[in-house]
Amino acid sequence: MRNYIVLAIPAFFLLIALEWLWARWQERDYYRLDDAVNDLSCGILQQLFEVFAKTALSPAISSSTSAGGCSTCRARPGPGRPVS
User: Fold this and answer.
1) Nearest to 43 by CA among 81, 2, 84, 6
2) What is the DSSP string of 3-60?
3) What CA–CA distance (Å, rounded) separates 70 from 53?
4) Domain residue spans of the chain
5) Long-range contacts of range 78-83, CB-CB < 8 Å, 24 or more positions apart?
6) What are 31-80's pLDDT values in tens digits?
7) Cβ atoms of 36 and 16 closer than 8 Å
């Protein structure tokens, strides 16, 4: 599955630059650098958190699904399984 946010990052920067150039051309002060840096840092932190969360949760998810389910599911006798 493609991560479309990663693919769109260059377009975001291009649009930011175009917006800044348009505001400069019209001699208006629409663009505030502190707001732009804050918004970009929030987006970067969100992406970093997602990477770390997926990395931290990946072993727990793969260990419970690779052995045929969780341990409580394997412990229950099912149809055709003898009760130990």
Assistant:
1) 6
2) -HHHHHHHHHHHHHHHHHHHHHHTT-----HHHHHHHHHHHHHHHHHHHHHHHHHHHH
3) 21
4) 29-55
5) none
6) 777 887 898 899 889 888 988 888 887 766 666 555 555 555 555 555 55
7) yes
